[in-house]
Design a protein that fits this description.
Layout lengths: L12 H18 L13 H4 L4 H18 L19 E4 H18 L16 E4 L14
Parallel strand pairs: 1-2
Helix pairs in contact: 1-3
Length: 144
């Protein structure tokens, strides 16, 4: 599961579509409607602060908006809560840079024509950027 901290405009088609699917799965997990993924570390930040259902809705809605801008149709009726406003959660600069490098590597292999969209890392609108290293919940790197 990868719930990108990056702005949806940076995501190539595969990351946008996968993010939508994984976000909907995260929504079910946060509602207690699944048996799997309940302890997934990416969900820690949604549980730690405020209303998890509203936070994941605030994460999903910008993906749906970006999909619409690109001519895709994501069913917004699947978002079950009123979305939290922009800036409701924080993300560190280190986390954003790690995810940007991860996305860049993926796009280089699967959609090199998208690389020109990856000029500067920008956070998803749900997140406010703060100084700091990679987030403690991130499992893509070993924490020291």
């Amino acid at each position: 599961m990868r719930l990108w901290s990056l702005h949806p405009k940076l995501l190539d088609r595969a990351a946008l579509v996968a993010g939508w699917r994984e976000g909907l799965l995260a929504q079910k997990v946060l509602q207690g409607n699944t048996k799997g993924y309940r302890n997934h570390p990416q969900l820690d930040r949604f549980r730690a602060d405020g209303d998890p259902a509203a936070l994941i809705a605030g994460w999903l809605l910008p993906l749906a908006e970006e999909a619409t801008a690109r001519g895709y149709q994501f069913n917004r009726e699947l978002i079950v809560a009123t979305p939290s406003p922009a800036g409701s959660l924080s993300v560190t600069q280190g986390q954003l840079e790690l995810e940007f490098a991860h996305l860049h590597a993926k796009v280089t292999k699967r959609a090199p024509e998208w690389l020109h969209h990856l000029d500067t890392p920008a956070p998803h609108s749900l997140f406010r950027l703060t100084p700091g290293p990679v987030e403690p919940w991130e499992r893509a790197v070993e924490h020291r």
